[in-house]
Amino acid sequence: MSDENLKHSALEDAQGLGLGVFLCSVGIHVLTHLGLVTGQTAGLAVILSYVTGWSFGAVFFVVNLPFYALAWQRLGRTFTLKSLGSVTVLSILTELMPMGFRIEYVQPALGAVLFGALTGLGLLAMFRHGGSLGGIGVVALYVQDTTGFRAGYVQLIFDAVLFSVAALLFPLSIVALSLLGAVVLNLIIAVNHRRDRYVAT
């Protein structure tokens, strides 16, 4: 089969990215309802929104802005534009979600797993269609390319710092539940995001 036949169409990309962003927005709605945190740029935005009282959507959009120039240089125009569009739509959806989806009760551990599962599947859909939610992952790839230091380690260090800060700001029970959600999310990505098995782009 030729490479051309393996590529997603524009409509398939729109569907995949749209579904991914929607699942991530539902996951973040569950996360913020429980007052939990997560890793990466979304986690930074969540913590800032809790501390400042500003909305997650607005903070997430602004936090991602500095990364687009680097993404354009490192990963190209298409990836950057898809990521910019995805971040923008996610920022809007997280603002609108509480208007149509009000959570009365969810057991915290179950909520953490729900967040991890929904967001992990959402990110997986986005990765498979050449998009992302921007942020620290772009910096991690840049560091790897320029220094040889692995991108995964850069992300782990960032998350370790982020959760350490969270431990100073929030009860340890919140941090522990947040780690549960982050583990579920990262396991989904680690097990399923395999370019050697899924080759369409």
What does this structure look like?
There is one protein chain. By secondary structure, this protein is mainly alpha-helical. It has one domain (3-192). It is built from ten helices and no strands. The protein is globular, with a radius of gyration of 17 Å. The two termini are 14 Å apart. Residues 197-201 have low confidence and may be disordered. Keywords: Cell membrane, Membrane, Transmembrane, Transmembrane helix. Pfam families: YitT_membrane. The chain crosses the membrane at residues 16-37, 44-67, 109-127, 160-189.
* Intertermini distance: 14 Å
> Major β-sheet, in short?
none
Q: What is the count of DSSP helices, taking H or I runs of 4+ residues?
A: 10
What is the helical fraction, as a range of percent? Answer: over 70%
Shape: globular
Low-confidence stretches: 197-201
Mean pLDDT: 85
The whole-angstrom Rg is: 17 Å
Pattern of helices and strands: HHHHHHHHHH
Number of strands: 0
> Strand pairing plus helix content: what structural class?
mainly alpha
Count of individual domains? 1
Quote the beta fraction. Answer: under 5%
